[in-house]
Amino acid sequence: HLYTHPAFRHGKLGKAAAPPFIVLLAEGRPLTLPELAGLLGRETRALRRPLGRLTGHKLVALENKTFTPGLRWEEALDNAARVTGAYKTQARQRDAHRSERRAFLTRRQNSELRERLAKAA
Questions:
Q1: Tens place of pLDDT for every residue, the chain, 121 residues?
Q2: What is the four-CA torsion angle of 58, 70, 84, 101, rounded to 10 degrees?
Q3: Phi first, then psi: what are they for 69, rounded to 5°?
Q4: Cβ contact 82:44 at 8 Å
Q5: Tell me, what DSSP letter sits at residue 10?
Q6: Residue 30 near residue 36 (C-beta atoms within 8 A)
Q7: In 7-35, which positions are buried (b, 16+ CB within 10 angstroms) versus exposed (e)?
Q8: What pTM value is reported for the model?
Q9: What angle do CA 81, 94, 102 make, to 5 degrees?
Q10: Which of 10, 26, 55, 64 registers the highest number of CB atoms within 10 A of its CB?
Q11: pLDDT digits over 3-36, tens only?
C-alpha cells in the first residue's frame, strides 16, 4: 500500500521516492547509494533527489554514507502527506472524480431517454 500512499502519489515526495523507500524497508539493513541503485536497477544520480526528499521529511536517515528507514517513518510519512498538501489534493481529486461521474451518468440517462422517446414517436 505504500506505493499508493498520498504522500507519494499526491504530495511533493513524488512517485520516484516510493521504490527506494520500499527497498530500504524490505532489506532491513543500511544501504549505500550504489547498493540501493543496484537493487533498483537505476543509476545513483537518479536516486539523489528522491532520497533527498525522503531524508528531508525524516522517512530515511543518512548516517556514515548509508541509508536506513527513519525510526518513526510511519509517523513521518503521514506528516509528509499533511505538510505537502497531499491529503487535500487527494480529496480534491476524489471530489472531481465524483462530480465527473455524476455528469457522465446524467448524460447517459438523458441519452437513453432521448432514444426511448425517438422510438416511441
A1: 788 888 898 777 989 999 999 999 999 999 999 999 999 999 999 999 999 999 999 999 999 999 999 999 999 999 999 998 888 888 888 899 999 999 999 999 999 999 999 998 7
A2: 170
A3: -65, 145
A4: no
A5: T
A6: no
A7: bbbbbbbeeebbbbbebbeeeeebbebeb
A8: 0.74
A9: 175
A10: 10
A11: 888 889 877 798 999 999 999 999 999 999 999 9
DSSP secondary structure, 23-72, as one string: HHHHH-S-EEHHHHHHHHT--HHHHHHHHHHHHHTTSEEEETTEEEE-TT
- Grid coordinates in use for 104? 457522465
The percent helix, strand, coil of the chain (3-state, each to 5) is 70, 10, 20
Strand partners, 60: 69
Percent of the chain at pLDDT above 70? Answer: 100
Indicate the average pLDDT of the chain: 92
